[in-house]
Amino acid sequence: MQGTDAELIGQIRAGDKGAYQYLVERHGRTLFRVAYRITRNEGDSEDAVQESFLRAYRNLDRFDERASFGTWIQRIAANYSLDLVRRRKRVVEQGDEFPEVVDTAPQPDRLLESARIRETLGRGMESLSEQEREAFVMRHIEGQSIPEISERLSIGSSAAKHSVFRAVEKLRRYALGR
């Protein structure tokens, strides 16, 4: 029962609820990557994936088949992930702390260097606007094209290019300590 996203959506709308599983299998890993790049937390990313598929299913009647289902659901995941980050930030501002994530890799020197890089990149990512962060993640982590970024963020191509460029420049300056 595999098919294009549009064919599967047609089957779901015709009453075949089981066809949705194929969309979940097809897009689940991508959604996790999108969510993880924004939240930098596996648990939050898994929650974002589940919630995104649930929201997409509930709103499938609103989906315009002329658009890409993948782009649409990635946008849902990105928005939900950003909401999680905002809520987390409010909690931190109120004095609560996040549980520490422990990495059990066997090579301590690589762990230390990876942690330094993650910390620097994480702090640098926090200095970006939401649009810059999303554009950077889509371009340099997910490998999406400028037209895909433009469509997903609902902005023009030149604005998408500019957002990616600004993000890279800000991260470079942050990494160099300027």
In terms of topology, how is this protein built?
Blueprint: H1 5-13, H2 20-39, H3 42-58, H4 69-93, H5 108-126, H6 130-141, H7 146-153, H8 157-176
Helix pairs in contact: 2-3, 2-4, 3-4, 4-7, 5-8, 6-8, 7-8
What coarse outline follows from CA principal-axis ratios? Answer: globular
- Name the CATH class of the largest domain: Mainly Alpha
Can you count the beta strands? 0
CATH topology descriptor of the largest domain: Rna Polymerase Sigma Factor, Chain: A
Mean pLDDT: 84
- Are there runs of 5+ residues with pLDDT below 50, and where? 101-106
CATH superfamily membership of the largest domain: RNA polymerase sigma factor, region 2, helix turn helix motif
CATH architectural type of the largest domain: Orthogonal Bundle
The major β-sheet equals:
none
Please give the oligomerization state of what you see. Answer: single chain
Helix content: over 70%
> End-to-end distance, in Å?
55 Å
Radius of gyration: 18 Å
What's the domain count?
2
* SS field, number of helical segments: 8
Q: Strand percentage, roughly?
A: under 5%
Order of helices and strands: HHHHHHHH
Q: What structural category arises from helix and sheet content?
A: mainly alpha
